[in-house]
Amino acid sequence: MTQVSIIHNSRCSKSRQTLALLEEKACDIQVIEYLKTPLTKVEIRSILDKLGLAPRELMRSKEEEYKAQNLAAVTDDEALIQAMVDTPKLIERPIVLANGKAAIGRPPENVLAIL
Q1: Other C-beta atoms lying within 10 Å of the C-beta of residue 46
Q2: How far apart are CA 25 and CA 17, in angstroms?
Q3: Distance (Å, rounded) from C-alpha 112 to C-alpha 86?
Q4: 74-85: b or e for each residue (b if 16 or more CB lie within 10 Å)?
Q5: Residue 27: Cβ within 10 Å count
Q6: CB 3.0 to 4.6 Å from 15: which of 49, 59, 94, 102, for a disulfide?
Q7: Predicted TM-score (pTM) above 0.90
Q8: Catalytic entry in 12, 53, 74, 114
Q9: pLDDT of amino acid 68
């Protein structure tokens, strides 16, 4: 059985669909509710490395908090990572971690490639 972690928001339909897909695949799932237990800088950097993304690419730029913090004008990656630590809602979801890799579940089937 594959051990997987899902960075999850139960209010997000794509996150719920991705979790259901993992359950169908009989995975051993660790659910990380990142809005209740925010990710650390180290965890976000690790996820970014596994995804091969820059910090901005992991951010939900349409969120009101993104606009309110004027993050479109921020060019420093460390400042963007800190914004995700301070405001977890800015992090794209769901993210699945398995087998030393990561995938964003948009669409949910994206995560099948790393199982």
Answers
A1: 14
A2: 13
A3: 30
A4: beeeeebbebbb
A5: 20
A6: 94
A7: yes
A8: 12
A9: 97
CA 42 – CA 20 distance, rounded (Å):
28
Nearest to 81 by CA among 36, 48, 106: 48
Render pLDDT for 9-29 as a digit per residue (tens, 0 to 9). Answer: 999 999 999 999 999 987 799
Run of H or E residues at 97: strand 95-98
Higher model confidence: residue 2 or residue 4? 4
Answer yes or no: 27 catalytic: no
How wide is the angle at C-alpha 100 spanned by C-alphas 51 and 91, nearest 5°? 35
Nearest partner of 90 among 82, 98, 102, judged by Cα: 82
Reported as type and span, the H/E element at residue 10 is none
Token duo for residue 15: 């996150």
Decide if 33 contacts 43 (C-beta within 8 A): no
Helix (H) or strand (E) holding 3: strand 3-8
Question: What one-character DSSP code corresponds to residue 9?
Answer: -
